C-alpha cells in the first residue's frame, strides 16, 4: 500500500471513510462510521492503523485482518472493529478492481438475481402509519418494518415524524436519528403501554394490507426477557417476518426464555462486533437472522465466516442497513449478500441526496430487490471535493428516560 487517508464528512449525517491507494494507483474504500462516536474511529485509524499500512501487500487481506486484530492486544469493541472493517473493505475493493470484476464474483459468484430489501414505515398514529406503508410500497418495497407511536408517549425510537430539538429543529429524521447538537435528545418510554398497544397496531395493519405483506418490527433492546417473550407471543397471530432486538442480547441466556414462549422469528446483533458475540446464540439456535454489519463486525472477511457458521443451523442474514451504514458499507453488504447461500433480507434505508453526491454508487433497487451492480470492486466512488463541503458536525443518538426519571435503553 502506498498511502491511506481518513475522510470525515457530514452531508446528511456524519461518515468516516478510509481510502487506500496502492503503489499502482488502485484505490479502495472502506466504511468506518460508528454512529455518534465517529471521531473515535477516525482517530483510531489516523493515529494507530494508517501508520501500519505503509508498504504492506494489499492483496494479503486475511493476513492484514489478523495482524490488525491480534497485534492491538486489546481486541474487539466497536471502535477497533469499525477501523479494521474499513481496511478489510478497502482491500476487497482493491482486489476486485485488480481482478476486473464486482466483489460478489470474487466471493463465489451470485447465489441469486437480487436481494430482497425492507424499508422503514412509521407513524405516531394509524393514519400516518398507513400512509407511510403505502409510500414505501409505491417506492417498490415488498417487505416493510412497522414502527408505531404509543399513546401517552411524546417521542420514541423509529418514528420519522418525530421532530428534533437541537441543531436541526423541525426536521424529520428519515435519514438520521442522531441529532446534531451538544447533548443527546431525551425521549420517553413506558414498556407496559408499548406491550398493550403494539399488537393492536399489527392487527390493524394486517386488516388493512392483508396477510401476504412481510412485516417486521424492532423492539430496540427495550424489553426484559419476559416482556420480550410476551410481545413475541402476542404478535404470533400477525405472522411477522421477524421481531428484532427484543431484549439486550449481551445476556445470551435470556433468549432461551424468549424462545420457550414464542414462535415469532427473532433477529439479533446489530450492536455485535465479532463472531464470538454470535457464537452461542447461533449454536443454540436462539435466533433466526444475523443482524451484523460489515462496518461493525470487522469487514467482509469475518462476517462471511459468521454466515458460514450460521448456515450450519439454517440461520439467515438480515444485515443492518440504515443510514448509519455508509453507501460503502451498504455496497459491501450487498456483494456479500449476493454470494452467500443463506441470505435472508437486507435492510435498506435510503440515503439523502447530498450523501449520494459524495458517494457515487452503481447499485440498483428495482421492484423491491437490490443489486450491487457489475462495476469492478464495490461499485462506489468517493468524491473527495464534494465531501469537503460538509465538515463534521457533532451529533448524538437520543436516549430514554422512564416517567420516574430512570435512564432506559433507547
Structure description:
- There is one protein chain.
- 36% of the residues lie in helices and 18% in strands.
- By secondary structure, it is of the alpha/beta class.
- The strands form five sheets. Strands 4, 5, 8, 9, 10, 11, 12, 13, 15 and 16 form a ten-stranded mixed sheet that branches.
- α1 (38-53) packs across α3, α2 packs antiparallel against α3 and α7 packs parallel to α8 (254-261).
- Residues 165-170 have low confidence and may be disordered.
- InterPro entries: D-mannonate_dehydratase-like, DgoD-like, Enolase-like_C_sf, Enolase-like_N, Enolase_C-like, Mandel_Rmase/mucon_lact_enz_CS, Mandelate_racemase_C, Mandelate_racemase_N_dom.
According to DSSP, the number of beta strands is: 20
Q: What share of residues are in beta strands?
A: 15-25%
Rounded mean pLDDT score? 95
Rg measurement, Å = 21 Å
Number of continuous helical runs: 13
Morphology call: globular
End-to-end CA span: 41 Å
Which structural class should the secondary elements be placed in?
alpha/beta
- Fraction of residues in helix: 25-40%
Low-confidence stretches: 165-170
> Biggest β-sheet, characterized?
10 strands, mixed
Amino acid at each position: 500500500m502506498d498511502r491511506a487517508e481518513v475522510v470525515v464528512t457530514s452531508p446528511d449525517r456524519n461518515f468516516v471513510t478510509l481510502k487506500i491507494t496502492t503503489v499502482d494507483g488502485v484505490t479502495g474504500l472502506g466504511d468506518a462510521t460508528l454512529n455518534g462516536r465517529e471521531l473515535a474511529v477516525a482517530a483510531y485509524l489516523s493515529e494507530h492503523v494508517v501508520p501500519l499500512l505503509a508498504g504492506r501487500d494489499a492483496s494479503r487481506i486475511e493476513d492484514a485482518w489478523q495482524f490488525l486484530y491480534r497485534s492491538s492486544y486489546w481486541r474487539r469493541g466497536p471502535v477497533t472493529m469499525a477501523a479494521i472493517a474499513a481496511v478489510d473493505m478497502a482491500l476487497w475493493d482493491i482486489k476486485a478492481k485488480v481482478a476486473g470484476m464486482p466483489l460478489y464474483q470474487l466471493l463465489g459468484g451470485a447465489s441469486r438475481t437480487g436481494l430482497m430489501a425492507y424499508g422503514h414505515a412509521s407513524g405516531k398514529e394509524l393514519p400516518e402509519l398507513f400512509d407511510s406503508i403505502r409510500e414505501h410500497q409505491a417506492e417498490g418495497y415488498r417487505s416493510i418494518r412497522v414502527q408505531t407511536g404509543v399513546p401517552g408517549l411524546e417521542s420514541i425510537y423509529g418514528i420519522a415524524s418525530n421532530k428534533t430539538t437541537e441543531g436541526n429543529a423541525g426536521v424529520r429524521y428519515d435519514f438520521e436519528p442522531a441529532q446534531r447538537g451538544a447533548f443527546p435528545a431525551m425521549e420517553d418510554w413506558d414498556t407496559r403501554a408499548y406491550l398493550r398497544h403494539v399488537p393492536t397496531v399489527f392487527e390493524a395493519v394486517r386488516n388493512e394490507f392483508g396477510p401476504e405483506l412481510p412485516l417486521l418490527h424492532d423492539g430496540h433492546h427495550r424489553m426484559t426477557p419476559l416482556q420480550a417473550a410476551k410481545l413475541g407471543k402476542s404478535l404470533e397471530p400477525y405472522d411477522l417476518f421477524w421481531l428484532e432486538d427484543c431484549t439486550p442480547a449481551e445476556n445470551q441466556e435470556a433468549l432461551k426464555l424468549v424462545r420457550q414462549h414464542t414462535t415469532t422469528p427473532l433477529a439479533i446483533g446489530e450492536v455485535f462486533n465479532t463472531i464470538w458475540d454470535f457464537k452461542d446464540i447461533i449454536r443454540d439456535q436462539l435466533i433466526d437472522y444475523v443482524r451484523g454489519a460489515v462496518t461493525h463486525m470487522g469487514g467482509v472477511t469475518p462476517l462471511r465466516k459468521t454466515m458460514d457458521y450460521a448456515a450450519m443451523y439454517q440461520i439467515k442474514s438480515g444485515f443492518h442497513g440504515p443510514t448509519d451504514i455508509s453507501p460503502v458499507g451498504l455496497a459491501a453488504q450487498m456483494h456479500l449478500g449476493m454470494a452467500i447461500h443463506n441470505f435472508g433480507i437486507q435492510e435498506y434505508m435510503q440515503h439523502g441526496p447530498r450523501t449520494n453526491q459524495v458517494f457515487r454508487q452503481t447499485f440498483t433497487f428495482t421492484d423491491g430487490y437490490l443489486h450491487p451492480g457489475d462495476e469492478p470492486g464495490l461499485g462506489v466512488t468517493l468524491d473527495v471535493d464534494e465531501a469537503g463541503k460538509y465538515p463534521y458536525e457533532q451529533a448524538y443518538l437520543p436516549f430514554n428516560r422512564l416517567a420516574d426519571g430512570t435512564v432506559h435503553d433507547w
